[in-house]
Design brief:
2 domains, binds uridine-diphosphate-N-acetylglucosamine, about 425 residues, UDP-n-acetylglucosamine1-carboxyvinyl-transferase, Chain, single chain
Length: about 425
């Protein structure tokens, strides 16, 4: 099993060019089966979540080519299978995104309940009730979700919660449905707007993404496209926080600062300096930072749950006490015992964590329990005194391309051992 060995204490200095967002690329890959023509996505990172999605697409008959510069081409001309193998679906929660496009293209889909990051219940009831409102029948009897869209029709859908995945699934499920489908209380994340832009570039007629109401006017067919997905705001945010924790001067390039406005607003309240210019964000930090009084995770444009554990890592060594409320996923404090092993002072009650900043962390043997938690332990290791051994880094490989080389380039002392 691969591990990271980190010798903490080095400041970080340099530039990182951010690639396409995992959370955009995954639904876009799923959406690429909506056309028989070729689709190319540019600037994609080499991460295991994307590799798994490509395996699923290959499994239903897509021909996939990938070059060294991150271009992935999907040819879904001859897809032949309407079932997603159970093993693959369990490995990747995003396999659920394939329901919408499969139903649009093939009118049938068979998929087992999806897996994914171990951060809570992650139900799919909102996906299923939205699909049912579109007239899609779903039989859950067999342990699989057996879906049939032969009687699909346009609808007015009101989501119980602004779920990112459900919004995306319903946009893809309704793209060919005659008439106008309206989705209300939908998610407003930048990845939703990216999906709208991508589908419209293929000939769809969707509007409203970025607001709480999306309108989908059904079209007959979609055509191929070459598209560059939005940059990964969570990767950018993770390295911004790394710079804040370790000290130094790091510039993220190829980013959209607006997508990170909640993190930038928070970091600007500490004693580090955040400078945004066009598609760049620079973080300069020196010495121990002031704690943030309160952080509440929320739907976009609120503070993202996907950066909650990283900001917690920063709070562990800041001056003062911070209260962190996790409002999106119920078990996203799983990394807390690992931080405590490194000398952090944190108490958790239900969905709230109180972090009392300590002057410094020390290296320890710790374990990644999920994707973002794993990345946060890397940050803690970089800022700690001494040696940290981080196990189960396959969680990190799901979403971070070459984390050790990227950080080494900035001056960190981190190696991957097998
Ligand atoms: C997406 C992101 C994930 C991020 C999350 C929240 C991808 C691939 N993943 O996940 O990184 O952490 O958004 O920003 O884009 N819910 C239900 N029923 C449902 C669906 C969701 O109750 O049918 C609840 C969830 O339990 C959670 C909340 O809604 O409490 C938000 O989940 P959702 O927005 O759907 O997250 P994902 O799309 O799974």
């Amino acid at each position: 099993m691969s591990r990271y060995i980190i010798e903490g204490g080095n400041p970080l200095e340099g530039r990182i060019r951010v690639k396409a967002a995992k959370n955009s690329v995954l639904p876009l890959l799923a959406a690429s089966i909506l056309t028989k023509e070729k689709v190319t996505l540019q600037n994609c990172p080499e991460i295991s979540d994307i590799r798994n999605m490509l395996k699923i697409l290959a499994g239903i008959g897509c021909i996939i080519t990938r070059d060294d510069s991150g271009n992935i081409t999907i040819d879904a001309h001859d897809i032949y299978c309407d079932a997603i193998p159970c093993v693959l679906a369990k490995e990747l929660r995003s396999s659920i995104f394939l329901m919408g496009p499969m139903l649009s293209r093939m009118k049938k889909a068979r998929i087992s309940y999806p897996g994914g990051c171990e951060i809570g219940m992650r139900p799919i009831d909102i996906h299923l009730s939205g699909l049912r409102e579109l007239g899609i029948s779903i039989d859950e009897e067999s342990g699989y979700l057996d879906c049939d869209a032969s009687g699909a029709h346009s609808a007015q859908i009101l989501l119980d919660l602004p779920s990112v995945g459900a919004t995306e699934n319903l946009m893809m499920a309704s793209v060919f449905i005659r008439g106008v489908t309206v989705i209300r209380n939908c998610a407003k994340e930048p990845e939703i707007t990216d999906l709208q832009n991508f589908l419209n570039a293929m000939g769809a007629r969707i509007s409203g993404a970025g607001s709480s109401m999306i309108t989908v006017e059904g079209v007959e067919k979609l055509h191929g496209v070459t598209y560059t997905p939005i940059p990964d705001r969570i990767i950018a945010g993770t390295y911004m926080i790394a710079a804040a924790m370790c000290g130094g001067n790091v510039t993220l390039e190829g980013v959209v600062p607006e997508h990170l406005s909640s993190l930038i607003a928070k970091m600007s309240k500490t004693t580090c300096k955040v400078i945004c210019k066009n598609d760049k964000i620079s973080v300069r930090s020196k010495g121990r930072l002031k704690s943030l009084e309160r952080i509440d995770t929320m739907y976009y444009p609120g503070f993202p749950t996907d950066l909650q554990t990283q900001i917690m890592a920063l709070q562990t060594i800041s001056r003062g006490t911070s209260v962190i409320a996790e409002n999106i996923f119920e078990t996203r404090f799983k990394t807390v015992p690992q931080f405590i092993k490194m000398g952090a002072d944190i108490t958790v009650r239900d969905r709230t964590a109180v972090v009392r900043g300590v002057p410094g962390l020390h290296g320890a043997e710790v374990c990644a329990t999920d994707l973002r938690g794993g990345a946060s332990l890397v940050l803690a290791g970089l800022a700690a005194e001494g040696r940290t051994e981080l196990k189960d880094i396959y969680h990190i490989d799901r979403g971070y391309e070459d984390m050790a080389p990227v950080l080494s380039e900035l001056g960190a002392n981190i190696i991957r051992v097998v």
